[in-house]
Amino acid sequence: MRLPHPLYGLYERRLAASLPRTQVPRHVGVILDGNRRWARNVGESAATGHRRGADKISELLTWSEEIGVEVVTLWMLSTDNLSRTPEELESLLAIIEDAVRDLAATRRWCVQVVGSLDLLPPETAAALLAAQESTRDITGLHVNVAVGYGGRREIADAVRSMLREHAEAGTSLDDLIEEFDVEHIADHLYTKGQPDPDLVIRTSGEQRLGGFLLWQSAHSEFYFCEAYWPDFRRVDFLRAVRSYAARERRLGR
Prior knowledge:
The protein is of the alpha/beta class. Helix content is 47%, strand content 13%. The chain has one domain: Decaprenyl diphosphate synthase-like (Undecaprenyl pyrophosphate synthetase, 3-Layer(aba) Sandwich). Strands 3-4-2-1-5-6 form a 6-stranded parallel β-sheet, sandwiched between helices. Helix 1 packs parallel to helix 9. It starts with a helix and ends in a 7-residue tail after the last helix. The relative contact order is 0.18.
């Protein structure tokens, strides 16, 4: 529903004021979907859509800060996206590099790169890691940028890391089998030490996770928004948080 502009502002303010501050999600994951379809609808190139989507990120982070969110994870590039045409992928990677560099340059947010950087061009991986390192001392909103990310790949990487750690410590296979539990995986995920996402938002109307935070989202609430990512508004974000706050989270109990 697109409200006339004067009413939209009033509705947005009332919606923000109505949010129960004790039920704000600590960690919000966002699947930034629909850039190419947005561009197609307005007669622009895919690169233009990706740039418009990148420009939206700082707005989302500001909205998150305003309501007290502690962690935001942004899925910017999946492992599946790496199979796009070389021309589109090169342009997309350049836009992502610029976007992450700009986020770090604000000195407002602590940026962490999550994903399989070995799948990315070396210059892209280096640019992302440099942005991460430059914000290491910043407290406040923690921003995970998922680039070259796939949920199955993350779990495989976690298992590989866990096995390597135990092998280096001299743990026998029999001993590992006896003591192995879910925390052995959780302690080696890209997001280790962070709260799992309470709320996962996907834009563009698609109602699937596509492999986003597969392990961490076991108890997450999901919200699917019809708007393409470049059109995502503060009121859409607030509606997602309101929907989350209204749900009874039993967490299996």
